[in-house]
Amino acid sequence: MPNLWELQKRIVPDLTAQVLKRYHILRTIYHFQPMGRRLLAKRLDFSEREVRGDLEFLARQGLVHNTSAGAMLTPEGEKLLASLVKMVRTIQGTRDQENILKRFFGLDEVIIVPGQGDRVLQREELARQVGNYLHEKTGEEGVLAVTGGTTLAAVARVMKKRRKKRSRLTVVPGRGGLGEKMELEANTIAAEIAQALGAQYRLLYLPETSNPRTLAALKEEPAVAEVLDLLKKTDILLHGIGASLEMARRRRLPSEEIEVIRNRGAVGEAFGYYFNSKKEVVYITPSVGIRLEDLERIERVIAVAGGVEKTEAIMSAVNPLFQDVLITDSDAATAIVNKIKEEGSIDDSKNRNQWVWSDW
After folding, report:
1. CA distance 148 to 136
2. CATH 3.40.50.1360 in the chain, residue ranges
3. Has residue 292 got a pLDDT over 90?
4. CATH 1.10.10.10 region(s) of the chain?
5. How many Cβ atoms sit within 10 Å of the Cβ of residue 313?
6. How many CB atoms within 10 Å of residue 320?
7. Which CATH number applies to 92-357?
8. CA 108 – CA 114 distance, rounded (Å)
9. Is the confidence at residue 354, as pLDDT, over 80?
10. Average pLDDT, the chain
């Protein structure tokens, strides 16, 4: 028997478009509030007349508060937006895609953030979903390790603090620093996420790549030794996935090393390991922090990456032996599903999703 939503679509076919439209309006206001009508219309590619009518309707429902500075969501509007996500996931077929990717990658869980179009908005939505997931899944104690990068920096920025305190939970950076923007470093992200979770944190005062002799001496420092010991006790790991050449440049690798990575066909990167489209590890950069071989012992490993430009990177770096959860957005998910369909059956996915060490 068709579910209620399927029946509604058949009886009132324009209902779907209306729900999606108002969902996108609420979502956009949430991330950029206060937001003027003209800017909202431009960002969503709607007419100002359309937006004005919808804002007036949403205001009458007590979901939006229109101010001189622009529209803002009311507390009731924020609650409704969170509830709407489930409906939008059904409308856009997100749950079907999640099942396909879950089976293809062999993971315990795949979460796809619905939406389309605006890349900035997609990134913010992805970050918000990850933040909500952390609030839901992290316990009262243990160790949560996080890596750096643009996606996790967005997570740290949008995570909302809640009253719940986790004084026995410690958040630590899973990697050393890359020497890039402070907000992208694992140390900064760990501190901000800890504050949002009501947890404590420790920082790792080491560059990600170090001379072996220097590293050996630094490891003897009490503050460094404490964090490295905590990393061995990690219960949950949150990490991003990068495009190989972008990550090689961010690590400031010499041009000859970047050329080697390119020539070996690397498309994805995680933890200093570079993977080609066959899931072969084709290059490794020496680094400080959690290593690939550490992932198997960690109870819950969460990989986060979004955007169609990360399609190949995600497919190369996600492996059921090491990750348990993938959180991505609809752009990346749709691109991956399309590739899966082009390649044919996924019945042999369990065998294809094993990382291989190539001979190099």
Report:
1. 21
2. 92-357
3. no
4. 4-84
5. 26
6. 16
7. 3.40.50.1360
8. 20
9. no
10. 85
d(CA 339, CA 316): 13
Are 238 and 111 within 8 A, CB to CB?
A: no
Q: State yes or no: pLDDT of 241 exceeds 80.
A: yes
The pLDDT of residue 213: 66
Q: Looking at per-residue confidence, does 19 or 130 come out higher?
A: 130
* Residue 355 pLDDT > 50: no
Query: Distance (Å, rounded) from C-alpha 281 to C-alpha 279?
Result: 6
Q: Which residues contact 304 (CB under 8 A, 6 or more apart)?
A: 126, 130, 151, 152, 155, 238, 239, 240, 241, 326, 327, 328
Q: Judge residue 143's burial from the number of C-beta atoms within 10 Å of its C-beta, 0-12 exposed, 13-18 middle, 19 or more buried.
A: buried
Q: List all residues 6 or more positions away from 236 whose beta carbon is below 8 Å from its beta carbon.
A: 137, 138, 142, 143, 144, 145, 298, 299, 300, 301, 302
Between 214 and 327, residue with greater pLDDT: 327
Q: Please tell me the distance from the alpha carbon of residue 26 to that of residue 125, in angstroms, as a whole number.
A: 12
Number of other CB atoms surrounding residue 152 within 10 Å: 25
CATH 3.40.910.10 fits 4-84, yes or no: no
pLDDT tens per residue, range 46-74: 888 888 999 999 999 999 998 888 999 99
- Residue 250's CB is within 10 A of a number of other CB atoms, namely 17
Angular region, 302: left φ>0, alpha ψ -120 to 50, beta rest: beta
- Average of pLDDT values for 305-322? 93
What does pTM read for this prediction?
A: 0.83
Tokens of 51: 């937006």
Q: What is the DSSP string of 130-184?
A: HHHHHHHH--SEEEEEE--SHHHHHHHHHPPP-S--EEEEEEEESB-B-SS-GGG
